[in-house]
From TrEMBL:
Entries under PANTHER family matching the protein: ACETYLTRANSFERASE, ACETYLTRANSFERASE-RELATED
InterPro entries the record matches: Acyl_CoA_acyltransferase, GNAT_dom
Keywords, comma-separated and alphabetical: Acyltransferase, Repressor, Toxin-antitoxin system, Transferase
Naturally occurring in which organism (per UniProt): Thauera propionica
Transferase is among the record's keywords: yes
Protein name: GNAT family N-acetyltransferase
Reactions catalysed: glycyl-tRNA(Gly) + acetyl-CoA = N-acetylglycyl-tRNA(Gly) + CoA + H(+)
Domain N-acetyltransferase: 3-166
Record-linked SUPFAM superfamilies: Acyl-CoA N-acyltransferases (Nat)
Coiled coil (residue ranges): none
One MF annotation (Gene Ontology) recorded for this entry: acyltransferase activity, transferring groups other than amino-acyl groups
């Protein structure tokens, strides 16, 4: 199946989105548009090419930073000793009907492309995610994310990995 990814807008039907994680469903349905209006997150949705108003998946991006002492030693040596600018991939979800079709990796690749484009204007040294489950941790680990020491569930993808594509 082919998907189109775009910023969340009023033409997209979000009420019926179900991914199997109530918190992610609720975020998209109740809070995503508020976060966009407040400028605290950008929300991107994937829609099937033949059903442009149906959400098959979504992700959010916002600005973040990571204290240098929270980085793995190998990365800490290469970066300054002040907070390192990052992009936060705050949420990523695929609808139950689209699961198993590779959409999660498509959404992650799209997020990386957008972060690379943004990094031409705003410095971004890493992408940060908070993996809420063992399955999510395995997903991010598969794509080269590194778990941050002393922060269970917080993972980081260094710029060298996402700047060249997944």
């Amino acid at each position: 199946m082919e998907f189109h990814i775009r910023a969340l807008d009023s033409e997209v039907e979000i009420a019926g989105f179900r991914c199997g994680e109530a918190a992610l469903d609720e975020y998209l349905q109740r809070y995503a548009k508020q976060d966009i209006k407040r400028g605290v997150a950008r929300v991107f949705v994937a829609t099937p090419a033949d059903q442009g108003s149906v959400v098959a998946g979504f992700y959010t991006l916002s600005a973040a930073s990571v204290a240098s002492d929270q980085l793995p030693e190998t990365l800490r040596k290469k970066l300054p000793r002040y907070p390192v600018p990052a992009a936060l991939l705050g949420r990523l979800a695929v609808s139950e009907t689209a699961q198993g079709q590779g959409l999660g990796s498509i959404l992650l690749a799209d997020a990386c492309k957008r972060v690379v484009a943004a990094s031409q204007t705003l410095a971004v040294a890493a992408i940060i995610v908070d993996a809420k489950s063992p399955a999510a941790a395995a997903f991010y680990g598969h794509f080269g994310f590194i778990e941050l020491p002393g922060q269970p569930g917080r993972w980081m993808l260094p710029r060298a990995h996402f700047a060249q594509g997944l």
